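Hypothesis: this fold can be encoded by more than one sequence.
Test: take the structure tokens below, design a sequence, compare later.
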């Protein structure tokens, strides 16, 4: 997901940084498949801007 909202991105970064831990997260096969599909979408340029997403949602 892509966002140009700097305050939102800063808040997310703050949340993620405050919850950093040495603990590893166990992913199941569904999560791994979804992550791989996301990486392929990014590589292939299958992205949508936040503005376009909001427009589609409102329609």
């Amino acid at each position: 997901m892509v966002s140009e909202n700097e305050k939102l991105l800063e808040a997310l970064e703050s949340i993620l940084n405050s919850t950093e831990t040495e603990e590893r997260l166990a992913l199941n096969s569904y999560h791994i498949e979804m992550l791989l599909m996301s990486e392929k979408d990014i590589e292939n340029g299958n992205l949508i801007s936040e503005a376009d997403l909001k427009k589609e949602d409102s329609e």
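The chain has a mean pLDDT of 85. Residues 6-58 form one domain.
Hypothesis status: open.
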